[in-house]
Specification:
Layout: E1 3-11, H1 13-23, E2 27-34, H2 41-50, H3 56-64, H4 70-76, H5 90-101, H6 105-116, E3 121-124, E4 131-136, E5 141-143, H7 145-149, E6 159-165, H8 173-181, E7 184-187, H9 192-200, H10 205-211, E8 215-219, H11 234-243, E9 252-256, H12 262-269, H13 280-284, E10 288-292, E11 295-298, E12 301-304, H14 306-321
Parallel strand pairs: 1-2, 1-7, 2-3, 7-8, 8-9, 9-10
Antiparallel strand pairs: 4-5, 4-6, 11-12
Helix pairs in contact: 1-3, 1-14, 3-4, 5-6, 8-10
Length: 322
């Protein structure tokens, strides 16, 4: 049964788009607020060549919310393997064309959404061209989202905080309005410092979350991430989120408690990644904890089971609203 729960989901990368696939099964009122700090791959090339905002994360979210032939989603995610377009996805190229025809990236996204017939709405968090910078515990700085993700010394010099340049960019109005109207605000899943937190650094976003009467949920990653959260516990993730916003930003925290298969643990160990330890006592000192089997193994990678996760989010929202 489709609910009328209004969900505003903030993030980027594959984490947000994965959850959106599940949310559209349970509610028809979804707004995705997407980070625009990406500077790698196809998005980085189009950003450099055309001076546009990175389309990749937005494209993934639009694809996840398509409500027509599933092959359309496959088509816009198709990535060219040869020639001058090698490395680019068709959807990114289409967004680049629409951006050239529009007054802003936000307008281009709206046009693409109409073409695809999506469930819900997708907004870039800002229309401004921003660069993400990480400041490490030894005061060293790393500029650019792709460089932060490639950082290899996070075990010794953790990320202290991240910043946007220019600081406090103006938000897209629709993104703020969606947060104001939401019954549930979801942060994550996704890369902590490069997908989720950048949204909170946009002017007005954290304030809108603080002032909202919605249920605020943080979905913690299942695995730690090389270059960002090596050695992090679940509480460490929450603590970093609060450091970049305010204490108490999450009314609830959802974590996976299913065991990752041994063969995958070995594979992830080669990437300096491991399952996120659930330090229950620390978490319960700051927020409510919701645990469950949310594990999905897909193409040899650990993912959230998007259906179970979305069902949990909508159920918690319904109970909170009632």
């Amino acid at each position: 049964m489709i609910s009328n729960i209004k969900v505003a989901a903030l993030g980027g990368g594959t984490g947000l788009s994965t959850m959106l696939k599940g949310l559209k099964l349970y509610t028809g009122d979804i707004t995705a607020v997407v980070s625009v700090a990406d500077d790698g791959g196809s998005s980085g090339m189009l950003r450099q060549d055309f001076g546009m905002l990175p389309p990749g994360d937005v494209r993934n979210c639009l694809s996840a919310l398509t409500d027509i032939d599933p092959e359309i989603g496959d088509l816009i995610n198709y990535r060219f393997r040869e020639g001058g377009l090698k490395g680019h996805s068709l959807g990114n190229i289409m967004l680049a064309a629409l951006n050239d025809m529009s007054g802003s990236f936000e307008e281009a996204v709206k046009k693409f959404a109409r073409v695809l017939g999506i469930v819900g709405t997708v907004y870039p968090v800002t229309n401004e061209n921003v660069t993400l910078k990480a400041v490490l515990s030894n005061n060293k700085t790393i500029s650019g989202e792709s460089n932060i993700g490639a950082y290899s010394e996070a075990v010794w010099n953790r990320i202290d905080h991240v910043e946007l340049n220019p600081p406090s960019p103006k938000p897209v109005r629709g993104a703020v309005e969606a947060i104001n109207k939401a019954d549930v605000i979801v942060l994550g899943p996704g890369s902590l410092y490069t997908s989720i937190i950048p949204n909170l650094l946009v002017s007005g976003i954290t304030e809108a979350i603080r002032n909202s009467r919605a249920l605020k949920i943080y979905v913690c990653n299942i695995m730690t991430q090389r270059g960002e959260t090596e050695g992090y516990t679940a509480y460490d993730h929450l603590s970093a989120l609060e450091k970049h916003s305010y204490e108490g930003i999450a009314d609830m925290m959802i974590v996976n408690n299913a065991t990752v298969p041994e063969y995958l643990l070995e594979r992830y160990a080669g990437e300096n990644a491991a399952p996120v330890h659930i330090d229950t006592e620390n978490i319960l000192g700051h927020t409510k904890l919701v645990q469950g089997n949310l594990l999905l193994i897909q193409n040899g990678r650990v993912r959230h089971n998007f259906s179970r996760l979305a069902r949990t989010v909508v159920q918690l929202g319904s109970e909170f609203r009632n």
